[in-house]
Amino acid sequence: MSQPQTVDLPLAPPRRSDAPVLAADIVERLTYRIGKDPRVAERHDWLSATILAIRDRVIDHWMDSTRSTYEQEHKRVYYLSLEFLIGRLMRDAVSNLGLLEETRDALASLGVDLDVIAELEADAALGNGGLGRLAACFMEAMASVDIPAYGYGIRYVNGLFRQELHDGWQAELPETWLADGNPWEFPRRESSYEVGFGGTVDTVGSETDGTGRCVWRPGERVIATAFDTPIVGWRGKRVNTLRLWSARPIDPILLDAFNAGDHIGALAESNRAETLTRVLYPADANPAGQELRLRQEFFFSSASLQDILRRHLQQYDSLTNLADKVAIQLNDTHPAVAVAELVRLLTDVHRLDFAASWHIARDCFGYTNHTLLPEALESWPIPLFERLLPRHMQIVYAVNAIVLREARAAHFDEASIRSISLIDESGERRVRMGNLAFVGSHSINGVSQLHTDLMKETVFANLHRLYPDRINAKTNGITPRRWLMQCNPDLFALVRETIGDAFMDDAAKLVDLDRFADDPAFVERFSAIKRENKVKLSNLVARRLGIRLDPDALFDVQIKRIHEYKRQMMNIVEAVALYDQIRSQPDRDWVPRVKLFAGKAAPSYLAAKGIIKLINDVARVINNDPAVRGLLKIVFVPNYNVSLAEVMVPGADLSEQISTAGMEASGTGNMKFALNGALTIGTLDGANVEIRDQVGRENIVIFGMTAEEVGTRRAEGYDPASVIENSRELSQALMAIESGVFSPDDRTRHADLIRSVRERDWFMLAADFDAYAAAQRRVDGIFADKPAWHAKTVRNTAHSGWFSADRTIREYASEIWRAG
Ligand code: GPQ
């Protein structure tokens, strides 16, 4: 083992963090780091100064964590993800360090309100949806359960677009989270690597005497430079690193060209490099399919692996023990090319033989699959892959030969072999990234039990047959710090007062709340907090949209990406049906309801954008119809992001988790709602199944077809027209929409959307509609019986501790990574 470069130098003493010391530090940062006189400082300057002061407290723990991993030779976990949907970090860091009150007091002594400046922090949206948010929750949880871990991703200059509604249509605007600087990050110019593209592959040395090897000579090269963000675990126990790569050119400007008058050409290379890490693809569960995307994938995979190997070699001088000290988790197939890149680095650069490299790679990698939707599985046309990554193409073929040989030895038939192959030969030849990730990993996990079972039966059936020990389930989790303690401080305080502090370190202990579910005094306080959170949400809606909500109405919330399989459409059609009923039976004792929606649609996903417009069209008519007397309101809150979720989740009574069974791999929003005391209305899909098992079937409202029934129904030949004909409610609602009741300015606007339901209905809205509407009326019934409702909401909170990301991470650590 080589020695660390710096030994026995004393560490700076940890800083004191009582309010006066913190206040002095904040003023010092403001003055000397930001260069502002406190008397003229603006709120944003106070925010930056506060973050810098907090960041300094983080650094002590950060260095301790790094040193102890090194000294104790712990295995390191590397989480490779093209997305980290982190949101704001200040409250998270302050709260995990246990400095919330001190910071509040320090700022108050300076005449600054913590809550006001916290709102100004940019919401880092380097992700699309659940997959990216999971990566962020995992980063926090890995630090909390003391796993030495690094997250690797891309430092996009523009994260997920900002959504505005223009006349009810989604408009996309660039998001500029770095505009005011990012005080959290540390640029690391010294951690820079070259990443190549294109070019040729040469063989050097002699094939016969064993010195022969391949050398890739890229035609194009860029530099990847690291930016580090510290991620603080609960109680500041450990601080891990989120390392995001930014691309820059080797030559920022070609001076010869510039001097010769070619000003644009002189900067072409620079622009090309910087384009690489400019924007996040807004594609969620459907592949972007463009060359730039493959370049992004390879760029961050290669830089990360070079960094991992450098760190390992610096400590151990040898790569033969790599898999003992390194676990690399692939977050979906986006970094799957890392499998080929690691083999290349080990063989071509570090001169291991191919078989050894291949085994080491497989022992290092684990792959998490996040969807079964066939159209979502990534694959790249061979000509593109070969042109951009010629050496990796050879490696893919070499690996494929091994895999196909194993399949033949196991007597697989030709059809099975075709499905296992890394090359899809069914049309234009393509590299299948899912198969590459699978064969290059010792563990392949699904994100809920149901999703894992279906993986074995569907997409990976033949690979599972060939490698039966690899697929395993790791049900997703969420960090209870952000999703309870921070977003719902009043509920957090009540729980603490009621059952003590143990749940703060072990969320499963929330179960101690169960016995208070029928205690009227407790329930009254629990429900008062929910009401207060609903008031806060109402205030946000009033501020942003000028719509007034009644906080005593049932707040029914569906927030997530807009996708046909998630069936926001079924929800809004049900609203239309309910509207119809309220008008035709005005004297029934309707439960007042507010249906809240939020979510972004991929800019190229026209059906999803049509659904957003439909929701807004329906909202305008219903909200303005005096006959409804406020019994039903529809609200679409624009620009859904992590910060908005932190207000909407605590303010919800009902959580809509209504995907077509078999299509939502897990869901994680469902867990956040349950934890914050909302009831779920949902199908038996993804983690909803496990939520039912945890909270008990009497505390959740389940409806509709099971995944198996969906499959059977499809196989039998599903005919939506006859289903619609047999449902009066659904027929009328669909007719109202297609006849232009909600779009008087353009009566045929929603005709295509409705026609797709009538003619194909791939997501089986019609088949589940009556069951859904009936389930909604069951919800009304329970909501009207306040003691029954409240007892159920308490039990949802009490039994959601299992969905802590700490539990999930412990499972990954012991069963996949063998770390920690
Ligand atoms: N998910 Cl493939 C995404 O958010 N984006 C994606 O590209 C893919 C999956 C989601 C998935 O739809 C949810 O069911 C999961 O809960 C989430 O990943 C995290 O596993």
UniProtKB/TrEMBL annotation:
Modified-residue entries (N6-(pyridoxal phosphate)lysine), positions: 672
Annotated GO MF terms: glycogen phosphorylase activity; pyridoxal phosphate binding
Cellular component, GO, one term: cytoplasm
BP GO annotations: glycogen catabolic process
This protein's name: Alpha-1,4 glucan phosphorylase
InterPro entries found in the cross-reference section: Glycg_phsphrylas, Glyco_trans_35, Pyridoxal_P_attach_site
Role according to the record: Phosphorylase is an important allosteric enzyme in carbohydrate metabolism. Enzymes from different sources differ in their regulatory mechanisms and in their natural substrates. However, all known phosphorylases share catalytic and structural properties.
Catalysed reactions, as listed in the record: [(1->4)-alpha-D-glucosyl](n) + phosphate = [(1->4)-alpha-D-glucosyl](n-1) + alpha-D-glucose 1-phosphate
A Pfam family of this chain: Phosphorylase
EC number(s) from the headed UniProt entry: 2.4.1.1
Xref: NCBIfam families: P_ylase (TIGR02093)
Subcellular location: Cytoplasm
Keyword Aminoacyl-tRNA synthetase part of the UniProt annotation: no
Family to which this protein belongs: Belongs to the glycogen phosphorylase family.
Alphabetical keyword list: Allosteric enzyme, Carbohydrate metabolism, Cytoplasm, Glycosyltransferase, Pyridoxal phosphate, Transferase
TM spans (from-to): none
Cofactor: pyridoxal 5'-phosphate
PROSITE patterns reported in the protein's UniProt record: PHOSPHORYLASE
